Amino acid sequence: MLEDTPLEVIDEVLQKSWKAFHQYSKFSIKQRADFMRAIARALQNSSDELIKTAMEETSLPEGRLKGEKARTVFQLNSYADACERGDWLEARIDTAHSDSNPQKPDIRKMLVPLGPVVVFGASNFPFAFSTAGGDTACAFAAGCPVIVKAHPGHAQTSTLVADLIMQAAAECKMPDGIFTHVYGASFGVGEALVKHPLTKAVSFTGSYIGGKQLFDWGNQRKEPIPVFAEMGSINPVFLLPHKLKTSTVDLAKLLVSSVTLGVGQFCTNPGLILGIEGDELQDFISAMGNEIKGIAPSKMLHPGIAKAYAEKRAKALEQENVTVIAEAELPSSDHCGAAIIATVTGKTFLSNELLQQEVFGPYTLVVRCQDITEMTAIAKHLEGQLTCTIMATEMELSEQAEMIEAIKNRCGRMILNGVPTGVEVCLSMQHGGPFPATTDARFTSVGADGIKRFVRPVAYQNWPNHLLPDELKNENPLHIYRTINNELTKEKIGN
Amino acid sequence: MLEDTPLEVIDEVLQKSWKAFHQYSKFSIKQRADFMRAIARALQNSSDELIKTAMEETSLPEGRLKGEKARTVFQLNSYADACERGDWLEARIDTAHSDSNPQKPDIRKMLVPLGPVVVFGASNFPFAFSTAGGDTACAFAAGCPVIVKAHPGHAQTSTLVADLIMQAAAECKMPDGIFTHVYGASFGVGEALVKHPLTKAVSFTGSYIGGKQLFDWGNQRKEPIPVFAEMGSINPVFLLPHKLKTSTVDLAKLLVSSVTLGVGQFCTNPGLILGIEGDELQDFISAMGNEIKGIAPSKMLHPGIAKAYAEKRAKALEQENVTVIAEAELPSSDHCGAAIIATVTGKTFLSNELLQQEVFGPYTLVVRCQDITEMTAIAKHLEGQLTCTIMATEMELSEQAEMIEAIKNRCGRMILNGVPTGVEVCLSMQHGGPFPATTDARFTSVGADGIKRFVRPVAYQNWPNHLLPDELKNENPLHIYRTINNELTKEKIGN
After folding, report:
1. Which Pfam families does the entry link to (chains A, B) (predicted)?
2. Partner-chain contact B414 A449, CB within 8 Å
3. What pLDDT was estimated at residue A1?
């Protein structure tokens, strides 16, 4: 067990990070991208020990971890490309008009880094949403130094990845303090990090309780700071009747595989399935039941998560009018999560708040709505979600415009005839949603737009060209897109 | 006196606004822009009564108010243009790759409106930062309905402007509830508005106390919402020695005119001037003194502001080692703000927090720093600012890179050899800054980027082309810029 970083060291860490910020923020977007690519290389070339350690700490299978590592390498490289492309800088130039009255000065604006960013990684993604994951990559692209608090569930893995980052930092001659790795199994270290005056932003992936606490600490500071917390959701799936009729068994198989993928330990796990009472829904429920029985229970990330799953699931199942459809029948052992599906009427679901909360694990609740009106009412009633999925024919999609609109207002990503698990790393991805899915629906933690969490605009008024940052110089030496006098262009200014 | 809107009406207001949101959010960017232009026209063609009423309520002179009205008309029209241009929508498309493993789905993302926005206008800008001001214009561009709480200092003016908006709304066949005007001299109405579950964002321009309260209420909700509060700042001016030497008297005149403009009632009023001890600074101080004596005291916005100015100013002047340089000598009358400048050493300034706070009115404090090191130390020590101004030769600017960097980290806009008052309405403007200048330095309240406060991304995964919003359709019917497979383009997809 790695010991907590002593609280008196936190101040040293932030002082060093703050100093690094003043150097690193001036590094060009090319230098930042090169650093990110060096981390990607180090991770790609890492020894087998890394995967082995992660397997021991998280109980995740080798294939999954190798895939996640590859995803993390891709993420670092693709955000590096985005960093260098520079669209995210939002360079805006309005040139002077000396003939207007009053005279208009030359004003140029771009996004600059906020300062040291504290990252709290996720238990369920030891690579992609942890130490060298998306948050760290976005912060480095933005020009911010990073302090990672190792997740106690995989602190050894985190340490190995941190070493790789430090190796890349040395290779790229990064300033001392560009990256710091700290440990904290207790709340104290997290609190000290978030409340330190030199911390300028926080990102987090995990539970509602953890994320909301960090958000509150961030807002209660003398100088409040942005805390982006992704806190999961129940990711409802809406089954429309015609689609369900034409693909009853296929949909049941598809959804069971999504519910049970990775022992249900994804923040996009579909924990709620809404259908309309009738024969097709009964057939679908039976088909799901048949599928789920054959799913072998697997070890969950750590005993705490398995315990929480067992408790939350039991709590949900003991609610009035909740019926179990089927449960995995294969033998289970310690810390394993057995898949289970239950069902309830729309009326009961609407009246019982507990049923609307996330059960992290291979569990889903099939809600039998009376009709499309009740399904729409539930859509309107739902809390904020990362994703909503709609299984529908094109005809149904256009007929149910009101429900689709309600769904859109409740989530960050709408999937048609697919599954919410599997979060593509691309610019168009939105991994964020209205509270409580995240603390600020205006941002994402997947895709290069995630950089925007860690930057703010600064305008230069009446500045001499040669002293402007390269991004804003007349010559456009970085060849980036800029909005000049309201027109997006890569052109230079003047001759 | 207009009576407070009864608290029981607030729920009706939000219900209506929420209903309007579902209709208005689907209006095209062209329809939104046309509505904004109709408001601009109604304001432009408004009767003399509007200016007369504003003069009575705010004591601002006719010329200033006519100029501010024209600025508001320009603002509405230019944000309408930006709305229609659609760059702000951040349309992103990643097309499907069926040959990759796993297959990549088609994902398309754009910004969508948050929902009803509550606007709290400013006392000092009855037009440009109030009822039909920048916040309202940005919210309408975003696709959000607006609820304005009339500023108690100019509630009649606000009512007249609200009537113009309603007139434009009728002309453009906007949904009922697109705009609502409420009254509230007490905290109760504001609190009910911010805490109502259907309120999805808040914007505010005014004092620290007011803005911070709204921010806290917004964060304490069951579903926290973004509250963008612009709370003013002291807008420091850094005088570098060579520049000061070559233009001593000109700089004194320029700064006195900026300090006393509009009786100092601007959030960009330069309330702090930093120079380096020496003959030039003494000459500058004397020249400022001569100038200030001749400034006629004018009526402030309302008696409360005049009283607060007198009290805060007295409090600052009674601090140890603060010396008055000069005060306006012309006769003053009720509710007038007499200009005054005082001076103090850098050491005293650094050790006394009270001197670092805003005195809203025609007041400025000249801080005599020992040397450039002390000036840099003060730059590093300052709270977040809307603006910082540097008076320097190009040589000094490049020599003092460390200080410039410190200044950049403390503000949203850096002005070289100009004055901070006069906030240009253009895309490159940043009117926002680190806390306590605003509650979120990542946003601006001036310029079309202000729209981004009120929108969030939504991704459509695997959606059929004809059911996508026009912004994301293959054909690009709106001819907007979009990022397709990581490339910014106006091209359509396919043939």
Report:
1. Aldedh (PF00171)
2. no
3. 58
Asked whether residue B352 falls in the same domain as residue B270, the answer is yes
**B408: chain A residues, CB-CB within 8 Å:** 112, 458
Give all strands of the β-sheet with B117-120 in edge-to-edge order: B179-182, B146-149, B117-120, B201-205, B227-230
Chain center to CA of B12 = 29
Best B442, B445, B451, B453 residue to mutate vs chain A (most A CBs within 10 Å): B442
Residue B276, domain extent: 236-416
**A260 and A224: one domain?**
no
Closest to B416 (Cβ–Cβ): which among A112, A432, A463? Answer: A463
- Is B481 a domain residue? no
Contacting A residues, span 88-107, partner chain B, CB-CB under 8 Å = 90, 92-94, 102, 104-105, 107
Indicate whether A178 and A302 sit together in one domain: no
**Does the beta-carbon distance from A415 to B461 stay under 8 Å?**
yes
Q: CATH no. for residue B246?
A: 3.40.309.10
- The answer to whether B224 faces chain A, any CB pair under 8 Å, is yes
Q: What is the CATH number of the domain that holds A118?
A: 3.40.605.10
Is the CB of B398 less than 8 angstroms away from the CB of A215?
A: no
Same domain, B151 and B115: yes
Contact call for B457 and A398, based on CB within 8 A:
no
Structural contact between residues A444 and B457, judged by C-beta atoms closer than 8 angstroms: yes
- Choose the mutation target among A405, A428, A482 for the interface with B, i.e. most B CBs under 10 Å: A428
What angle, 0 to 180 degrees and rounded to 10, lies between the N-to-C axes of helices A29-44 and A155-171?
A: 130
Is B177 inside any structural domain? Answer: yes
pLDDT digits (tens, 9 = 90+) for A11-64: 999 999 999 999 999 999 999 999 999 999 999 999 999 999 999 999 999 999
H/E segment holding residue B227: strand B227-230
Chain A positions touching B215 (Cβ under 8 A) are 219, 224
ipTM above 0.85, yes or no: yes
A288 and A225 in one domain?
Answer: no
Please state, in angstroms and rounded to a whole number, the distance separating the CA atoms of residues A214 and B215.
Answer: 17
- Backbone phi, psi, residue A391, to 5°: -105, 110
* pLDDT bucket at B430, cuts 50 / 70 / 90: very high
The pLDDT value given to residue B333 = 81
Q: How many CB pairs under 8 A join A and B?
A: 197
CB of A464 within 8 Å of a chain B CB? The answer is: yes
Does residue A383 lie in a domain region?
A: yes
Chain mean position to CA B207? 12
B429:A459 CB<8 A: yes
Query: How high is the pLDDT of residue A102?
Result: 72
Task: Based on the fold, state whether residues B206 and B188 are members of the same structural domain.
Answer: yes
Cβ of A189: how many Cβ atoms within 10 Å? 20
Residues of B designated catalytic: 230, 267
Domain count of the fold of chain B:
2
Q: Say whether B226 and A94 touch across the interface (CB within 8 A).
A: no
Give the residue numbers of A annotated as catalytic, written as ranges.
230, 267
Same domain assignment for residues A391 and A448: no
What's the CA angle centered on A390, arms A264 and A134, to 5 degrees? Answer: 50
A405–chain B Cβ distance below 8 A for any pair: yes
- Helices A62-85 and A48-58, axial angle in degrees (round to 10): 110
A429/B481 CB distance under 8 A = no
Q: How far apart are CA A464 and CA A86, in angstroms?
A: 22
- Both B111 and B219 in one domain: the answer is yes
Contact B440, A486 (CB under 8 A): no
The encoded tokens of residue A196 equal: 């330190």
Element (H, E) at A71: helix A62-85
Q: How far apart are CA B378 and CA B367, in angstroms?
A: 10
The answer to whether residue B1 is domain-embedded is no
Residue A313 in this model has a pLDDT that exceeds 70: yes
